[in-house]
Amino acid sequence: MAALVEENGFLRVDAERAKYTRYPVREEDLLASLRRFDVVVLSHLGGDLGVMGSVYFDEKVRRNLPKARRVLERYVREGGGLLLLPQSSRYPREESEEIANALLEGFGLETLREATYDPSNLYEHAAKPPWRAERFFHTENVSSHPVTQGVERLYLLALYRSDGIEKTGSVAFRVSPEWQVVVRGEASAKTHPADATNRVLLEEDGSYDSAPPVAAARSYGRGRVFVLSSRESHLFLNYAKPVWPNVVEGHGEGEEGPRSDTLKLAVQAMRWLAEPALANPAYGDYTPAPATPIRFPDSIELDSWRFTKPRRGVSGVVGAHSAYSDGSGDVAAYAAAARKAGLDFIVFTDPLSELSAEELDSLERDAAEASSEDFLVCPGVEFRDSLGVGWASFGSHTDYPPEELVMDGSRYPYWDGETMSATGAYAFDNSFAANGLLGTKTLRAAGGHPANLWWFYRFFPWIYEGDRLVEEDVEGWKFALRDLRWLSPVSFTRIRRPEAVASAARALRTVLPDLDSARAWCESRASRVRLGYVTQGPEILQWELHSGAARAVPQHETAGQQRSVAGFVVESAAGIDEVIVHHADFGPVRRFLGNGETRLAREFELAFDRQRYLFLEVVDTLGRRALSNVAYHYAYPSGVYRCGDNLNYLGSSTLLMHPDRHQRMALARGFEGERSPEHWISGIDGAGPPATPRVRGPLRVETWKGHAPDHARDAEMVGVVIDPVLSSSDVSIFEMEASSVVDAPNREGRPPANRGAVLPHKRPRRHVAHRETSYLLRSRKRYNVAWTHRRPHESVAAYRGGLMWHEGVVEIKKSFEPPLGRIGIPLLEMSGAGGGVGTILDVLDSELGPRRWQAGSPADGKIVGTLGPGGYAVLSPSPAGKYAVVAGTRGALRYRDASWHRSGGTGTLYLGLEPEAGAGGYPAGTKLEYSFLVATLPGDEVDSAGATADLARAYNLDGGSDGYPFNLRVGRFRDAEFFFSAQAADHELVGSFGPRAMVSDLGFRVAGLRDNGTAATWVKGRDFFRFVPVRDGEAWFQERIDDGIDLWVGNVFLADREGLQLTLVREGLGAGRKPFLEVHNPGDEAVRVNLRSPEHVPVYGGTQLADVAVPAGDSVRIPLER
């Protein structure tokens, strides 16, 4: 896009799509914002995000869309220009075409759920690394018009492959007589419909049997409108990027073949559209203000924030079975019974095995008819997958499954009337409807592991048959949150007759804020709506968390960012026994005793020292429980979390890993440097620039009998479970267990990964057990600048790369010998991307010193050797950056590649563990340890050896300790390999570090601290406490030492009793408020406690707080001086 703007003298300004249909913006303000520009370009009219950020014609869109339509029509009518780029839907059952047509109806334009396709004029652009093959069609059917001057030929994307099927590349449309069609397909071009999954049905005819329109223009009042059916990704977004073929934009069939004028047409259309506005002084007055660097506040306060008022919400039950299946009542009877029971909604989950497609359609129609402004009926189904695991899925987008799944030309079993073999496909085809497992215990009993789940957004902590509890899965709910899932808890009471609704509702129900929330909750796509609570009796009238971390200010710069204030109000006529605040399954964060009070309200403080998934467990005196929704305690600029579909890791951690596919933990951060966006392909689902070398983590072993097992060749593969044991804004830690075997997907009738059922762990691996711990450091890219303030270049001003450290052990269970010339236990594979990317290999060998090979050049010896401590392997060049692997001290890495020179391209360098000389292979009973760093480094220079050597030296990966200067005044040094590791003295450590230029801020690992809520750092000159996480007695954090720092780290306060939880509130306070220490006692007995601050603590060192009384199950606040 940048190249297009520069070449044509345009001024580009991006707007937030969602405000046009989602935000409550005043019409006059919206119109005024548009009038500042001569031309407005609207894409995604029916695309991945839908029109301006929605894919469903929900209530919010219905309310706001008329406003957006009036504004657009008035903007054009009074002289503005509007360029429309209709995009096809990506996900099944989206309503984005309907939204687009409602928005644009006044212009006389209708987009169709059809693809324009011309088999007689196809051009296939061959795959040229690092980009893939694609098919296009061209047309020379151009009519005379000012926008078509000099335009001879258009190339357009024909179809594109996504999710295993071919989808629409060029969206068909229909226009009213006021339009002039300026470009059509050739006579051989037709349109073909797309089904509910967006698969283009080339065997069926669409609305046009010849020469469909692909571009059209019209006047509208004093303004103009132009529509062009080109995917945005193949027009503006990737134009002139080095890895992009630019077929549509201009290259056509290459230098020797016909060229494409599609981008020329779009540019001329924008100039034509702008003509009326350029003559109108009321338009086009936008002048960009000079960009000044983003400056964050020195401090923020949270005292001005107020809790919302407690409210009871609306109640409903989930699990009704109608007479369409094995129930005895119709939908209307259930709705009447629910109303009589005082409920506001009811959700059906009829057994799919008892329904026909027609009956499911009837259930959905009946649900719509029984719903009203004050009552909601939501249709749905339940079924069992091939492991015997029960599932429930609900919402009006629930479809009846086909018998077969067709993907990439192959057929797989889907639904046989009893069993769902394609569980993932059903979630996908229902457009990620609200769904969840009916008990994770069954999954575990069948060998499956919840960590390998994906595409589920509701959790059933209790499962009832009517009013009888049949399974409790609260621990499964806790684990799901530990596993970084976006979820909401839901009740499940299987009800087979309307008369049982009332008793079921008394046993268990779901409560949501209001009916609008309930409608969104029922119809939500993926995890978009995370609301409500589930209860056996107690009511949660309020549960809120407000954190400075949510304000996207930097933790290391802004005081008060870590202050968090939480509060709840709960009730039970039977009296409240206790309220526990849980962090996933890591244990209680707070515990308040209710002492039988019918209403309990509390506010409490919590320091944001790590990412938390907080929820309430409310217990009344009858033992009845309620579980709240989740309060996500995290900071998006530096955190580890999943995509909203609960599939893969992504986000600001840049880790890309798919647990459903039993992938090994990602080995490296992604490319985040200034040039990365130039090589990032936009508008196409992906998670990284393609033009970079690659680092992969194999898990197989190599024996004389072959791979054991191998993803590519065998019917089995290694089973992997990833446990994110610590997620924080600095250091995040993941533990991997890769010691089992699972059936490989896409084999023996099993659907591809994420389309079938969970792959069960069948048995232990025969040859090895493999465990690995990975440590992710925060990089210096400022995501709050890049994302919140839309300053991608400014955000990487201090960026020097990303680091991820790995430590592991491979236990040999069965002796084996590797084949000749193979590494028996490969741990890493490094390869180039092709197209001249990653063709030079630099190695620092433990015996031979620095070595270099260039692909295609004459060999100067085999590529084989050893990386000892501090030894490295680097592939370059790459425009976006490169990966460097540096060996640590826990075991040498053997490297080899026999194909490098023969290939003439980029071979694959294998690094791993080899047996000791003379051992005759890998003997059973031995344990092979290893450690290595994978660095993601910016820069396109070929000679990267100097930078990598400096990196290895700085982080002491050669086993030394002088990579940077340091001086400890309090505490004891332990080790400096990658992390600076030390032992605190009396719960504190004091020293100076640096100056030393580092790639990422130095990681610290300080033992001897308590996880009591006050573990913190203080850097001279920063002058506020920054709280850090403690795990197993060790604090984990990062600090920048480039210019040198004086550092204190430790517990600010200590209690002489174990188990008390402390929160120091010194920052984040309003003007005039004094600091305080909040002391929480989770126990059943009141205590008297002595508190102290260790000697060297800044501000409070030596402070003694004697004989403080703390009630049972409650907190007290002790005023402090600033």
Describe this structure as you would to a colleague.
The chain is mainly beta. The chain folds into four domains: 277 residues, Rossmann fold (3-Layer(aba) Sandwich), CATH 3.40.50; 223 residues, Alpha-Beta Barrel (TIM Barrel); 269 residues, Beta-galactosidase, Chain A, domain 5 (Distorted Sandwich), CATH 2.70.98; 154 residues, no CATH class. The protein has 16 helices and 73 strands. Strands 14, 15, 17, 29, 30, 33, 34, 36, 37 and 38 form a ten-stranded mixed sheet that branches. Strands 44, 45, 46, 47, 48, 50, 51, 53, 54 and 57 form a ten-stranded antiparallel sheet that branches. A six-stranded mixed sheet has the order 1-2-13-12-10-6, sandwiched between helices. Strand 4 and strand 5 form a beta hairpin. Helix 3 runs parallel beside helix 4. It is globular. The two termini are 52 Å apart. About 1% of the residues have low confidence.
How is the main sheet built? 10 strands, mixed
- Report the helical percentage: 10-25%
Count of DSSP H/I helices: 16
Mean pLDDT comes to 91
Q: Please name the CATH architecture of the largest domain.
A: 3-Layer(aba) Sandwich
Question: How many domains would you count in the coordinates?
Answer: 4
Task: Kindly provide the radius of gyration, computed on alpha-carbon positions and rounded to a whole number of angstroms.
Answer: 31 Å
Distance between the termini: 52 Å
> Which term fits the overall shape?
globular
pLDDT < 50 runs, ≥5 residues: 46-53, 901-905
Strand content: 25-35%
Helix/strand-derived class? mainly beta
| Count of DSSP strands | 73
CATH class type of the largest domain:
Alpha Beta
CATH topology of the largest domain: Rossmann fold
